[in-house]
Amino acid sequence: MSGESGDKTNNSRRPKRKKTLLELRDEESSLIQERRELKRRLSKLNIHLEEQRSINQELKRMKKEESRRRASSKSELVPDLNIPFEEDVALLSSSSSVMLVS
């Protein structure tokens, strides 16, 4: 069994065959085309990313405006805490003892 594994390692250490000039040119051409295609794809992804960022910023702005609009339209009647409790109950219907809070 140890002889078999020794044979396998000897076979894998065989020197590589040198590539011909034509093979090297073909490989270089293929790599250049792949590089161009990758650059195009990266450019498209960057454009898409910028579009998504601008959409996201617009949505954030709209959300902020909506939040402000809701906060301004949401008003509650809160009793004036400067008036003692007994007087506050008696004057609850009076507008002077109730403050409008936004």
The number of domains: 1
- Gyration radius (Cα, Å) is 39 Å
Question: Residue share in helices?
Answer: 55-70%
Strand order of the largest sheet: 1-2
Mean pLDDT: 80
Count of alpha and pi helical runs: 3
Termini Cα gap: 87 Å
Q: Note poorly predicted spans.
A: none
Largest sheet: 2 strands, antiparallel
- Could you say which overall geometry the principal axes of the C-alpha atoms support? rod-shaped
Number of strands: 2
SSE order, one letter for each helix or strand: HHEHE
SS-based class:
mainly alpha
Strand content bin: 5-15%
What does this structure look like?
This protein is mostly helical and 102 residues long. The longest helix is centred in the middle third of the chain and has 53 residues. It is 69% helix and 8% strand. The N and C termini lie far apart (87 Å). It has one domain. Strands 1-2 form a two-stranded antiparallel ribbon. The chain has three helices and two strands, in the order H-H-E-H-E. The model has no long low-confidence stretch (mean pLDDT 80).
Summarize it.
The protein is mainly alpha-helical. It has one domain (20-101). It has helices spanning 2-12, 21-73, 85-90, and strands spanning 76-79, 98-101.
